[in-house]
Specification:
Layout (H helix, E strand, L loop, with lengths): L1 H105 L1 H49 L5 H10 L2 E9 L5 E3 L2 E9 L4 E8 L2 E9 L4 E3 L8 E8 L3 E9 L3 H9 L7 H7 L34
Antiparallel strand pairs: 1-8, 2-3, 3-4, 4-5, 6-7, 7-8
């Protein structure tokens, strides 16, 4: 009996213990569920807060954009108002001009007086213009005459043959140096210049020439037959002239025309108190002058005189 009683007591105690363990399990499950629900609620609340922040920022941007558009719209309205005011002012000014024109039309006498004055001014200007045109025509005629005379003079000073060159030499105004120049890259000295023939075209009668003037190389291309080349050197007051009067296949023939005296010699002569002797008298009475033909061109420059510029004493070799 006692054993049964003990067994019953043991079974009761075990029943209580199992009941307590079941209650504790449910309490743990409930606490975990509450924690999960609290975490979900907190996450949802945080997400909602972020969403509200984003929406607030977007609303601020939208408000700023609306304000900017409103400002632009106000500016456009102001410009339109200004344009409308300007058009209205222009229309008013046009109406005022029409009114003034109508008023001036009513007062015909002053307008007629101003018209006559304007017409008189126009007539004076037309007269002055006609006088100017006549003066221009007169000056043009004189210039053409002068150019024609200069052209004739230049044509007369170009020697096309040796005989023409002798005639120019007889004038005694300049020194003349004939030359025969072959095509080459080397330079040759003729009188006051150093020349080099680079190209000839016998068919079209032109040539290319290189020259050295005052230590500077100059190039003249496609120079025609009888076309003068004028060189203004520093040592002479007057220009040096080069003329080619014959063009061959690989050579040319021509002459150089140079002033008799350099500018420094003329200046020294003008500063000297000595009496100048005429060249013709000097030629007749000078016993040191060699017996030669005076009308032949020179092949070298005369020596530099230290006294007033008489006729050069150096001999003039024949061509």
């Amino acid at each position: 009996m006692e054993e049964n009683r003990e067994n019953q007591e043991i079974q009761k105690e075990s029943g209580w213990e199992s009941g307590l363990s079941g209650i504790n399990r449910w309490l743990v499950i409930g606490a975990v569920a509450l924690l999960i629900a609290a975490g979900v609620a907190f996450g949802y609340g945080y997400r909602q807060q972020l969403t509200v922040g984003h929406l607030t920022a977007q609303q601020s941007v939208a408000t700023a954009t609306i304000d900017q558009l409103q400002n632009q719209l106000n500016n456009v309205n102001a410009k339109l108002n200004d344009m409308a005011a300007a058009q209205q002012a222009a229309a008013q000014e046009a109406e005022q001009k029409k009114a003034r024109a109508a008023a001036a039309a009513k007062h015909g006498a002053p307008v007629d007086k101003r018209y006559k004055q304007l017409q008189a001014q126009l007539e004076d200007q037309e007269k002055q213009l006609k006088d100017t045109q006549d003066l221009v025509a007169k000056n043009r005629t004189e210039l053409e005459t002068s150019l024609s005379s200069t052209k004739d003079e230049l044509n007369g000073s170009i020697a096309k043959t040796h005989d023409d060159l002798v005639v120019l030499q007889r004038r005694g105004e300049r020194d003349y140096f004939e030359f025969d120049l072959s095509k080459s890259k080397q330079f040759q000295r003729f009188g006051p210049l150093t020349l080099s023939l680079r190209r000839t075209d016998a068919k079209h009668m032109n040539y290319d020439l290189m020259m050295v003037v005052d230590d500077n190389q100059l190039n003249k291309k496609r120079v025609n037959l009888y076309e003068p080349i004028w060189i203004h050197a520093e040592s002479s007051g007057q220009p040096v002239q080069i003329v080619v009067n014959k063009i061959g296949r690989n050579e040319v023939h021509g002459y150089i025309s140079a002033p008799k005296y350099k500018e420094s010699e003329l200046a020294a002569a003008s500063a000297s108190p000595a009496t100048l002797t005429p060249v013709s008298d000097k030629t007749q009475t000078d016993p040191n002058r060699p017996n030669q033909q005076p009308d032949q061109p020179q092949t070298q420059q005369p020596p530099t005189p230290q006294t007033p510029p008489p006729q050069p004493e150096s001999p003039r070799p024949q061509l």
